[in-house]
């Protein structure tokens, strides 16, 4: 859906498309989708977001939900509201890390087929790794998992957060005592690193991961193999959904 140009002459984002929202806490998910588009520069600094009424139609939610989402983004310094006839919600200028992010996006685009295959591979193998870990885990393995979870909570930036996230998944793999499985999970995390770095930072995203990790840890600690497999399957599926949304957004970026 095309976006109208603001009356003050500032450029508006064009070709922006969003997925409809049906989840609870809808304003957080709206904010997360917009944040993803900002991180991929589908909407550039200085451009205006669609009007609230238009966003509400795109997402299939009420204007109050859109207003709550925009307040979250404004509090994070990602957008700014301008009042008056020529007003609206505009993307703020970002720092000098855009070149590195652009290079990362290019790498993801170049290896998209491999990443698609990797997501399928991960969905098949990692739930079985969690099942095996629930059988063979030892005290030191549980300690490593707990340390990784605590590290994510204490992380002060996104790279540190993602490093502890990786530590958690590798700790589960090491609990299997199977070198091939350990190598497989390490390889998956390494090759998905760029794509996972492009996931938008948000409290919503972090809360969901933390909850899923805590539940996984509990199942593995208790030796509940069926629950560990089921929880990892859901955790991987949630991650895959977010990553595929990033891939789709990157494709739209390439077509612009």
Rounded Rg: 20 Å
- Please write the string of helix (H) and strand (E) elements: HHHEEHHHHHHH
Q: Helical element count?
A: 10
What would the CATH topology of the largest domain be?
Four Helix Bundle (Hemerythrin (Met), subunit A)
Distance between the termini: 13 Å
Beta content comes to under 5%
Structurally, how many domains make up the residues? 2
- The amount of helix comes to 55-70%
Uncertain regions: pLDDT < 50 for 5+ in a row? 1-5
What does the main sheet amount to?
A: 2 strands, antiparallel
CATH class of the largest domain: Mainly Alpha
Name some characteristics of this structure.
mainly alpha; single chain; Four Helix Bundle (Hemerythrin (Met), subunit A); Arc Repressor Mutant, subunit A; two-stranded antiparallel ribbon; disordered N terminus; 256 residues; 68% helix
Protein architecture, described:
By secondary structure, the protein is mainly alpha-helical. The chain has 2 domains: 26-91, Winged helix-like DNA-binding domain superfamily/Winged helix DNA-binding domain (Arc Repressor Mutant, subunit A); 98-255, GntR ligand-binding domain-like (Four Helix Bundle (Hemerythrin (Met), subunit A), Up-down Bundle). Helices cover 68% and strands 3% of the residues. The protein contains 10 helices and 2 strands, in the order αααββααααααα. The protein has helices at residues 26-39, 52-59, 63-75, 98-110, 112-136, 139-154, 158-174, 179-197, 203-221, 225-255; strands at residues 79-82, 88-91. Strands 1-2 form a two-stranded antiparallel sheet. A hairpin with a 5-residue loop joins β1 and β2 (88-91). α5 (112-136) runs parallel beside α9 (203-221), α6 (139-154) packs antiparallel against α7 and α6 packs antiparallel against α9 (203-221). It starts with 25 loop residues before the first helix and ends with a helix. Residues 1-5 have low confidence and may be disordered.
